[in-house]
Design goal:
There is one protein chain. The chain has 18 helices and seven strands. By secondary structure, it is α+β, with helices and mostly antiparallel strands. It has a five-stranded mixed sheet with strand order 2-3-1-4-7, sandwiched between helices. The chain has a two-stranded antiparallel ribbon with strand order 5-6. It is globular, with a radius of gyration of 22 Å.
Length: 386
Amino acid sequence: MPRPQRSDQFSPEEICYVHCIQRCVRKAWLAGVDPVSGVDYSFRKEWIRRRMEALASVFAIDVLSYAIMSNHIHQILRNRPDVCAQWSDEEVAIRWLRVFPGRRMEEHLAEPTENDVKTLVRDKNRLAEVRRRLCDVSWFMRALSEPIARMANFQDQCTGRFWEGRFKAQRIIDDAGLLACSMYVDLNPVRAAIAGDPEGCRFTSAYDRAEAQKGEQVDSAAFDLKPIPTEEAGRKIRETPVDDLRNERKAKRRNPTGRRILRDAWLSPLRMKPNVLSGEAEVHTGGVRSSDRGFLNLSWEDYWELLCWTAKQSVQGVKAEVPPRLAKRLAALGIDVSMWRELVWNWQRYFGKSACVGRPESMKQHAEQTGRHHYRGQGSGAACFA
C-alpha cells in the first residue's frame, strides 16, 4: 500500500503534531560506526542536531522530541501557522533568506542584505508563499535533509542518495498518543542497546533536557536574524580577500549569533502553562525557537521519572507496577496502565505502519473527519487504551 499524500496527513494552515522518521539509504550506518568498514561517522549526529537547532530558530515549527540514531532519525514536530501569522513581512523575509538565499553562498561569500529583504517584501505573492512554507513540516524536513546529504557526499567524495527517500510521517491526534510517541522516541537508543538508561541517550531530546537541568550550555546554532546593510556587504566583497571571507563564514557558521544557550533552549518547553489559553500563540522572542508553548500536561520531573521507569522494563514478561502517582497520570489520558510498557517498547507492533496515532476513539473520529473508514493500527492499538 502506498504512503498517503502529505496533504492528506497534515496542512500548513492548521496546527498539527507529526512524528517524522527519516532513514539513511539502504539503512546504512551513515551516522554511526559502519559495521562493515568500521569507519566511525558518529560525528554526523552533531551535524544533524545543530541543523535542527538552526532551523528551529527560523521556521514556525516547534521541535518537541527527537532522537538521532546511526541510520535514521525521529522527530516530533508541531507546525505553528498562528505564530507565523504574528511575524512581520520583514521577519518572514529574513528568516526565509537565511535558509534559502536564492544564490550559491560559496560563490558570492555574502549573506542576505537589507536590499534582498526589501526585494522579497515587495513581492507580495512570493512572500505569501514563503510565509506558508515556513510553517510547513515538509519544507522543514527538506531544509534539514538536503544540506546533510550534501555535506556527507562532499566528505566522502561521492554522489547519490544519503537518505532512502521521502520521510515517513504519522499524525498524532491526542495527548495519549503524544506522550507515548514522545517516550518511544526518547527511548530509541535504549531499545537499540546503545545506552542502558536515558542518562546515556545522547542526541535525544530527553538527554538535552536533563543536561539543561544541570545547567549545561552549548554554542547556539540559531541563525542571526539581522540582515547585513547593503553598502557594508558590497564593501566587504570588494575589499576583503576571498579566503578571509570564507574563514569568517566558517567561524560564523559555528556560532552565528555569538551566544551560548542552555542545551534544550531550542526545544519546545515540555509542560503547557495552565493559565494560558489554547488559542494564544505564545510567540518566542529570544531567537532560538518559534514559540514558548509546551506540549504535555506533565512536569519535567514526572516525565523523567516515567521515562526512567519505562527504560528499566526492558525484559519481556517481567511485570512491575507503575508508581501510583504516574499511574494516575496515564489513566487520566485513557491509557491502560498495565499495557504502558507494551505500548512504548513495542510501538512498531501497534503503530509502525499507521499514518495516525492516538486512542482508538480519536483515530475513528479523525478518520470520519477526513473521509476514511478507519486507520491502520486502530484495532490493534485498542488493547493499550482503557
